[in-house]
Amino acid sequence: MAEVLYAGSFFDEMAQVETKRVRDNIMDATDLLAVIPEMGSTNLPASIVEKYGGDVRKLVVPPFLVLYKLLEDDRILVIGVMHNRAAY
Question: What pTM, to 2 d.p., does this model score?
């Protein structure tokens, strides 16, 4: 089982999520990463690649994208959350 770590920016960006249900869905999705680390997509919009690099994966938790990186030693770094409309 992988260890899931959270960047400070993730928690800062979670402040834009207004409903508890969506916040809970996002946290549930990140919890699943411990079991299925590669479940996110590598098909990224250019804006995400520019900001975070090409080694990022995204999870779709409507209407948000959860961004994370696979690290060495079975660790995952959840780096951010952004509204799907902000990705282009």
Answer: 0.92
